């Protein structure tokens, strides 16, 4: 709008009820290609390592990262996660059947009350 109608950014933001900081915002996230490859290497070499252990290992190697960034790259962006194994001796969890209605819940409404009246 500013270019098309020759208006200032301040006026355009006021017309659109938009904060000027939102209009001027530019992302400062740096590309982490080397960090992503290192996280993937650690995850592939040590299959049972999760985010906390990978974070500690990266810090010991000298990478300037925090745990939140490692979790973001590990889970959301790279799609890695621990593969859960079921113990062979443990029973399979039974699925909950939500459609089952107990038969006594419907029949209780027709019972007479203590005073002799029914509901």
Any overview of this molecule?
The chain is mostly helical and 119 residues long. 48% of the residues lie in helices and 0% in strands. It is built from 7 helices and no strands. Helix 5 crosses helix 6.
Short description:
This protein has 119 residues and is an all-alpha fold. Helix content is 48%, strand content 0%.
What proportion strand?
under 5%
Please trace the helix and strand order, writing H or E for each element: HHHHHHH
Radius of gyration: 30 Å
Average pLDDT reading:
76
Shape: flat
Keywords summarizing the entry:
119 residues; mainly alpha; 7 helices
Topology:
Layout (H helix, E strand, L loop, with lengths): L1 H4 L3 H8 L3 H5 L8 H13 L5 H11 L5 H11 L25 H5 L12
């Amino acid at each position: 709008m500013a270019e098309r109608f020759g208006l200032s950014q301040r006026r355009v933001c006021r017309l659109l009820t938009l904060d000027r900081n939102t209009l001027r915002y530019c992302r400062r996230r740096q590309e982490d290609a080397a960090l992503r490859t290192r996280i993937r290497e650690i995850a592939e070499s040590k299959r049972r390592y999760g985010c906390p252990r990978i974070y500690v290992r990266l810090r010991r190697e000298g990478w300037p990262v925090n745990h939140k960034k490692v979790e973001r790259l590990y889970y959301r962006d790279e799609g890695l996660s621990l593969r859960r194994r079921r113990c062979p001796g443990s029973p399979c969890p039974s699925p909950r059947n939500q459609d089952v209605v107990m038969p006594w819940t419907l029949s209780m409404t027709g019972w007479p009350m203590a005073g002799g009246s029914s509901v």
